[in-house]
Design goal:
Blueprint lengths: L5 H16 L10 H15 L8 E8 L5 E8 L9 E7 L13 H11 L2 E5 L11 H16 L5 E11 L1 H15 L8 E5 L10 H6 L7 H11 L25 E8 L3 H13 L4 E10 L11 H17 L21
């Protein structure tokens, strides 16, 4: 494919017209509260409406500083302590500044239904009110909560995957490193990384090629990080930039989902290569014609649903210990293989 998918191209044209006319204001020109409201409102337009699952429950998870963060548990049926469900701990995207349980509810519902697992979506605290490393610590404490209390909610701490999209993918990648290093945490079976940010600096060729005109813009990325980071020293911390980790040996196997026209695509490719060099099983799915956030664009392009279905197949296989668990030999950074 030589350009974005026709339906994606139409969306990008609509965004450009809205920006030029003034009817759409880029996030970086808004106060954080307004940016969050705009992000959630646009999510309703992009995503397909998904009915509630048989079991959905609001939770409040305790954090290390005494605060509590909201979470939602989704499951195709009521989890029971006597027959616990495997669980995907999910962190939403939004540059550590925007995004919410609501913006990612359809995605979490669809993954839970299709994979036959529970999904615990957590509302980690956002910047600028909560600077780095609060979001990471909230994600880490959420994983620890599953280990301590998951069985009370019918969650199987021995069958955990961690995942997220965009900034949530960054958190999931960092959490996989933390889980390797801290024996008190449950060990995830898989890290699901959908178009994650992984690099200390946004200077890869894909940032120059796709940093303007492909929805996620370079100016927006830097605005996000200005809100989130305390200073440039934080950029070298692997909890923000997992590519900075000295070693990835021993982290959970990875499923990395990348769109072709995304400023972050080179970071995802580099991380897949670093994982493979460390001997970590990894599968990379590159979706031609897609852009950042495409998994939440079911109202725009059918590929969103197809990709979520492919992710669900892999989650289900990992949870049952089947042969479709990603293997190091499956890495392919140039094509999405037989799926498309």
């Amino acid at each position: 494919m030589t350009g974005p998918h026709p339906d994606i191209a139409a969306l990008l044209e609509m965004v450009e017209v809205g920006t030029e006319s003034g009817s759409r204001v880029p996030l970086q020109h808004l106060a954080p509260d307004r940016a969050r409201a705009d992000f959630d409102a646009s999510s309703l337009l992009l995503e397909v409406e998904t009915p509630p699952l048989a079991h959905e429950r609001a939770l409040l998870l305790p954090m290390r500083d005494g605060a509590g963060i909201e979470a939602r548990l989704y499951a195709p049926g009521a989890p029971r302590a006597g027959s616990p469900l495997p669980v995907l701990l999910y962190m939403h995207g939004g540059g550590f500044v925007v995004g919410s349980l609501a913006s990612h509810e359809p995605l979490c519902r669809r993954l839970a239904a299709a994979a036959g697992c529970a999904v615990l979506s957590v509302a980690y605290r956002l910047a600028p009110e909560h600077k780095f490393p609060t979001a990471f610590e909230d994600a880490e404490d959420s994983l620890a909560w599953i280990g301590r209390h998951g069985i009370e909610e019918g969650l199987d701490a021995a069958r955990i995957a961690i995942g997220g999209d965009s900034a949530g993918g960054t958190l999931a990648a960092a959490l996989a490193i933390a889980a390797r290093d801290d024996g008190r945490h449950p060990r995830p079976l898989l890290q699901l990384l959908a178009y994650p940010g992984l690099s200390a600096w946004q200077d890869a060729p894909s940032h120059r090629a796709f940093g303007k005109g492909y929805l996620l813009e370079q100016d927006t990325i830097q605005w996000f990080f200005h809100q989130y980071l305390r200073g440039d020293a934080d950029r070298r911390d692997w909890r923000f930039a997992p590519l900075e980790a000295p070693s990835l040996a021993g982290v959970a196997p990875a499923l990395i989902v990348l769109p072709e026209f995304d400023p972050l695509v080179d970071e995802g490719r580099a991380y897949a290569e670093k994982l493979q060099c460390a001997g970590v099983p990894v599968e990379l799915l590159l979706y031609p014609g897609m852009i950042h956030e495409f998994l939440r664009m079911g109202n725009v392009v059918d590929t969103a649903g197809e990709a979520l279905a492919a992710i669900a197949v892999r989650l289900a296989a990992v949870f049952r210990g089947g042969p479709e668990t990603p293997a190091a030999s499956q890495v392919d950074i140039e094509t999405s293989g037989s799926l498309y």
